[in-house]
Amino acid sequence: MNELSHEAPHRMEPGEGGSISSLYVSRMKIVSFGSFSNRVIGPFTPHLNVVHGKNEAGKTTLNAFFGGVLFGWEDARGARNTYKPSNAERAGSIFFADEETDEEIELVRVKNAEGLQGPEYLLDDIDKETFQTMFALTSDELRSLRNTTDVTAKLLTAGSGTGASPAQALGEIQRRIAEYTSRASGIDHSITQLSAELDDLRAKIARAGDESERFKHQDKEFHELAPQREALIASLQKLNAEIEALSAGKASLEKLDEELAHSLDKRKELLEEERELVADHRRHEQAIDPGLTSIAPAEEHSLRDRIDMLSEERSKCQHSVDLAKENYTDSKSNYEALLEAPDLQELENRARRQRHVQIALSVALPVLFVIAGVPVFMHGREITSLSFTALGIILVVFALFLAGAALVMLFRPSKTEEALTQRKQDAQWIMLQDKKKLETCEEGLAAQMIQTTTFLERSGLGAAQGSLRRARSLLDEARDARAASGLFVQKQQALVAQLSSIEDRLADIQSQKGSLYRRLGLAVDTPLSDIATLIEQKSHQRSGLIETSENVNRRYGELKQELAHAKHLRNFDALKLEYQQVNTQLAESEQDLARLLLAKHMLESAITAWESKSQPEVYRQASRLLSMMTAGAWVQVRMSEEGKLQVIDRVKTVREPIHLSLGTCQQLYLSLRIALLMTAENVGRAIPIMADDILVNFDEERRRGAVGALKELSARRQVILFTCHEEIVRLMQDADSQLNLVEL
C-alpha cells in the first residue's frame, strides 16, 4: 500500500487522450471513510488484481467506498453500517488511468448533496442497480441474480447503437403510458382528465343553446376520419401480426428442416455403424473356434480345475523325473569317479606289490633253507655227525614249512582287494537302481502327458496339442469371445434404441411442420421461398397502408386547424370548438396511447428478438464457464419455456438453482454474471468488477476453474478480487503470472 500522494493528477476531459474502454481504476484515495483515513489503496493494473488482507483489514469497507464514490453514500437507515466517521464527513476519490496514454482523471465525492465531482460521463453506460447486481460481487450475491429480466435486458441491449438502449426506451414509454392513464390534474394529456373536461364542456354547450352549424361539415368529416384512422391502425396491427407470425413460422420451419437433415444424417451414420458392428462380429466369430464359444462358464470353471489338477500332476511327475535324473547322474558320477579315483588305484598297486613281495619271500626263503640244509645234512652224513645231520634235516623241514605257509598265503584272498571290489559293486548297484527309477519316472511322465492330451481332445481343446498353458489360453479366448458376443448384443441394442429415437424424432419433426403449416394457413410442404414471397407481399401492403394512414393524419390535422380557428368567432362556437379540440385532444391522446402501446409491443418484440440473438451467446458462454468451474460436472445453462433458469449435468439431468448445493449455485450465478459482462461490453466500460471473497465456498478443483474464468474476464475488463485467504492468492498467482497483488 502506497502512502498518500500529494501530486494532483491530470484531469482528462471527454474525448481527450483515448476512449472510455481504455480507462481503468489505478488507485483509490480515502480521505475519511469508516476506519480509513488519508489512505491510498493501489496501484491497480488494467486486468487482474488481488487485494489481500486479514479479517477486519477493511476489504468490505473498500467495496462500500468504491460504490459510494460512484453512486452516493448510503443513507442511515435502521442498523445498516454507513461507514460514516464520528468526527468527519465521508470523502474520497477514485483515479482512472488511460491504458494508452497513462494519463489520469479523478472522480471525487464529499457530500451527496454536492454530487459527483469530475467527468461524470464515465457513468453514462451504467446505473447503480446494474453496478450492485453485476459489478459488486460477494459470496451472498452469488446465490441469486436480482431483477434478472430487467438487468439482462439492460445489458443485452446496451450496445444497440441508439442514443438509449431499447430497455431504457421501453421504460420511458411505460412512464408515458402511465401519464396518459393518470388521474393527476397537472397532466394535460391525461385521458381521464380530458374525458372529465369533455363532460364539463357538454354541459356548457347544452346550456348555451343550439349548436352552431357553421363547421358541421368539417366537424363531420373530422369525426369520420377517426374510425378510418382506427381501421387503418387495426389493419396495420393485423398485418404486423401476420408478418410476425409468418417470419417466426419461417424461422421455425428452417430450424426444423435443419434438424430433419441432421437427424437423417444421424440415422445414416447409425445404420452404417450397425453394419460395421455386425461385420466385425462375424469376422471375430470366424477367427474363433466354434467349439470354444459353446463352452459354458460352469464347464469352463470345471475344465480349469481339471487343467490345474493335471498341471499339478505333471509338475509332480516332472519333479520326480528331474529328481531321478539328478540321482542317476550323481550315482553314475560316483561310480565313474570310483573307477577312476587315484587313491583306489594306489591301494590296488600297493596290494599288488605286497602280493609280489609275499610270493618272492615265500619262494626265496624255502629255497634258501633247502640250499643251506641239504649241504649241512650231506656234510653230517659224511662226517657222521648227528648234530650236523639233525641241523640239515631241521633246515629242510623248516623250508618245507615255509613253503607250505607261502602256499597258504598265496591262495588266501587279500582283505584290501575284497574291500575295493565290494565298493565297486555297491556303487554299480546304486547306479543301476537310480537308472531303473529314472526310466520308471519318465514312463510315468509320458503316460501323464498322454492322459492330458486325451483329456484335452475329449474336452474340445485338441488345438492345445497337449499343452496345458495353451489350453488355458484357449479357455481365455473362449471367455473373451463370450464377452465380445455380449458386448456386441449390448451395442446392437443401443444402436437399435438410438435408431428408434431418431425415427420418433423424424416423425415428430414432420408432425411439427404439419402443425406449423396449418397454423399459418398454408399447404403442407409449401417451399420456404413461397413463404418469403408472401412476407414480402404483406410488407409491401403494409407500406401502402402506412402511406394511406399518413395522408389521413395529414387531413385530420388540417381539419383540426380549421376547427381551432372557429374558437375566435363567438362564445358558442368557441365552446363547440373547445369541445372539439378537447375531443380531438382526447382522440390524439387515445391515438398517442395506441401508438405508445404499439411502440411498447414493438419494443418488447425488438427486445425479445434482441435477446433471442444475444441470450444464446450469453448462455453458451455461461455453459462453457460453468463447465470450466465444475470440471465438466455441469455442462449447460438455459432458460426454460416458463422463464426459469435451469442447469444440465453431463448425464442430461436438469436441475433448477434451488436444488443445487451452495457452492454449485454460486458457481452457476458467477458464470452467468461473467457471461453477461463478457457479452455486454458496452456496459460499464471503465468500471472494474469488485469481487469480495467469492471463492470461499468452492472446493480446490472448482476454485481453480473459477480462477480461470476470472482470468478470462480480466482479459476484457478490470477485475479486483478481495480475499483474506493466502491459498487463493497463490492459486491466482499460479493462474496469472502478471497478477497485481495489493497487500492491506
From TrEMBL:
<keyword id="KW-0812">Transmembrane</keyword>
<feature type="domain" description="YhaN AAA">
    <location>
        <begin position="25"/>
        <end position="208"/>
    </location>
</feature>
<feature type="coiled-coil region">
    <location>
        <begin position="191"/>
        <end position="287"/>
    </location>
</feature>
<feature type="transmembrane region" description="Helical">
    <location>
        <begin position="390"/>
        <end position="411"/>
    </location>
</feature>
<keyword id="KW-1133">Transmembrane helix</keyword>
<dbReference type="InterPro" id="IPR038734">
    <property type="entry name" value="YhaN_AAA"/>
</dbReference>
<feature type="transmembrane region" description="Helical">
    <location>
        <begin position="359"/>
        <end position="378"/>
    </location>
</feature>
<keyword id="KW-0472">Membrane</keyword>
<feature type="coiled-coil region">
    <location>
        <begin position="549"/>
        <end position="599"/>
    </location>
</feature>
<keyword id="KW-0175">Coiled coil</keyword>
<dbReference type="Pfam" id="PF13514">
    <property type="entry name" value="AAA_27"/>
</dbReference>
<dbReference type="InterPro" id="IPR027417">
    <property type="entry name" value="P-loop_NTPase"/>
</dbReference>
<protein>
    <submittedName>
        <fullName>AAA family ATPase</fullName>
    </submittedName>
</protein>
